[in-house]
Amino acid sequence: METKTDILKRYFGYSSFRSGQEQTIDALLDGRDTLAVMPTGAGKSLCYQIPALLGSGVTLVISPLVSLMKDQVMNLVQSGVKAAYINSSLTSEQIAVVIRRASAGQYRIIYIAPERLVSPSFQRFAANAIIDYVAIDEAHCVSKWGQDFRPAYLDIAPFIASLPKRPVVGAFTATAAKIVREDMTELLGLNDPFTIVTGFDRKNLFYEVRHPSDRSAETLRIVREFAGKSGIIYCATRKGVEEVEQMLSDHSVPAVRYHAGLDESERSRNQDDFVSDRKPVMVATNAFGMGIDKSNVSYVVHYNMPGDMESYYQEAGRAGRDGTPARCILLYGAQDMRTQLFFIEHLGEESANDEDTIAQLQELARSRLKQMYEYCFTTGCLRAFILNYFGEAAPDHCGYCGNCTRVMEQVDMTIDAQKILSCVKRAKEAWGMKVIIDTLRGSKAAKLRENGLDRLTTYGIMKDVPEQRLRDMIRFLIQEGYLASSGFEYPKLILGPKAWSVLRDRIPLTAALPQIETRQVRKEQSRKRQDQLAGTSRSGLYDRLKELRFQIAQEKGVPAFMVFTNATLADMSVKMPRTDSEFLEVSGVGERKAEEYGERFLEAIKTWIRDNS
Ligand code: ADP
Ligand code: MG
Fold it and tell me: Into how many domains does the chain fold?
């Protein structure tokens, strides 16, 4: 009898399970309904694919996105699994063919869009088939409290109930909110489900928040730093997407755009260009990415603050799915809050919800936004903030995020504090951080002139202090109670309870301020992490293998990561296999892929060893 470990090795080429996978698979194999909450990239697909391959009948996977299905099925077929999909991208003739083959028992796994469950031809098939498992991917889509409510998900429970023999049902999601979790169990009709929530810590992701004065220039800097690598830039609005994409194109960066206002053909063309690595940079609204299974994204920039931590975690989590170090940079700007509040104001306008429900949704959204805002301003560990948000305990220092790695220095801030506080006072405690900073630095902005701020005695008295440094000082003063922030929509700086000890008593003040971090330092951190995580050989062999992968991907017309992921190539360049059986030892190499690509990769390794010894 084949075991789950055999299947894992044979089809997927992995020799061990990741956290949570084994328990989830065991529960399903035991015939127990299961609800698995695991973050993006944790490996949820294997949790239903492995039981599917151990069953005798067929497994249905209900999945919300057309692109997800196509990719997953292509991936499975590449690994030697008989699979197919049914969704709106197929013609009715094509669907008829799939159903005919399915009825003849030719598939182990069928992906299907929820809307298709109710079609008569599919129902006829389902009524006569032996369905072992129904896996519901992105199961949070059933809840209207989640981010991606999909009404057709409500048809899933009745569909399952209509089957002659009830299959075992597994529901999978990355959304942890309690209210959504309850909805999933109830609305999907899960039967006393085994529930598992696994770690949200993505150890290879470096989280960072920046408050640049010029986001556009900052974005360009980041994109150049990662030149040639794959990255996603998320903007809050379509207009933002247009502008950023234009800016990058003007600087000859090969980028594509994606938002709901583009027509279908441009969207799928741009997506293909990005997924296949023809265009390394994707500029998009949050309409892009759900179900995109691209594993070699090296960085995700948020050009704006998103509306909540769930969205942020999900979107940022599209970086580094192959396990190699990747960066998640959030660029905060003062207008972001207003944009998000505007969205909340108009929330539910297009839905059929009654007023009470809308008011409730808005309240939920506001409290989520508040936490997102706190993330942007915390000086504590960003990883700890995220994990705590998702209900997980975490040490308060991870050593690998923008806040933990800032080198602090002790600074005498006595005079600077007096300058800042007196500026806040003279500006009548009526302005936000940005205006105060501009005033202190003597900016020529019209807003200052129009409001007479350029006539304050404190105008321009901190000309030589970099903006970032001033911001850090102000944050320190807030944290220590010398300043405070009032109001949510337009937060104003006001004097804090301890202000007078500085203004009147002139007490000496020492602060620990972050040193301005250099790019070099960041690069070194990333390298260190790389070695920590994988023990990766950074040799020329890795690059050679990447070239070969690219060549093969071109020949076959599939995205490079479907041949092998970066993590697999990295492991290959460390293990340097010489024989077929050694080749199978590489993580991510299954039987099918070994057969298909083994010879060429082994040859390349042999040549490389010869040329380099
Ligand atoms: P999710 O659906 O949870 O976001 P996926 O199922 O798409 O994640 O898996 C993400 C990546 O992790 C894929 O490239 C997959 O091949 C890989 N992966 C899954 N399980 C394992 C494992 N046990 N060992 C190594 N890699 C794995
Ligand atoms: Mg998934």
Answer: 4
Nearest-angstrom CA–CA distance, 83 and 221:
43
Q: Please tell me whether residues 213 and 191 are part of one structural domain.
A: no
Is the C-beta atom of 568 inside 6 A of ligand 1?
A: no
The Å distance, Cα 151 to ligand 1 centre, comes to: 28
By DSSP bridging, strand 483-486 and strand 492-495 are antiparallel
> pLDDT tens digits, residue range 434-486?
999 999 999 999 999 999 999 999 999 999 998 888 998 998 899 889 999 88
Cα–Cα distance measured from residue 352 to residue 156, given in angstroms and rounded to the nearest whole number: 21
Q: Which two tokens stand for residue 47?
A: 């949790």
Nearest CA to ligand 1 atom 9: 43
The answer to whether residues 507 and 565 belong to one domain is no
Residues 26 and 127 in one domain: yes
pTM value > 0.85? no
CATH number for 142: 3.40.50.300
Ligand 1 in contact with 42 (CB < 6 A)? Answer: yes
CA contacts within 13 A on the Cβ side of 235: 19
- Residue 537: its pLDDT value, please? 46
Query: Within this chain, do residues 128 and 50 fall inside the same structural domain, yes or no?
Result: yes
Q: Is the CB of 202 under 6 A from ligand 1?
A: no
- Note the pLDDT of residue 223: 95
Q: Is 349 helix (H, G, I), strand (E, B) or coil?
A: coil
Domain-embedded: residue 341: yes
Same domain, 216 and 188: no
pLDDT of 422-442, one tens digit each? 999 999 999 999 999 999 999
Q: Which atom of ligand 1 is nearest to the CA of 16?
A: 23
Q: Could you tell me the residue range of the domain that residue 547 belongs to?
A: 535-612
**Test site for ligand 1: of 4, 11, 12, most ligand atoms within 8 A of the Cβ:** 12
Q: In this predicted structure, what is the pLDDT of residue 43?
A: 92
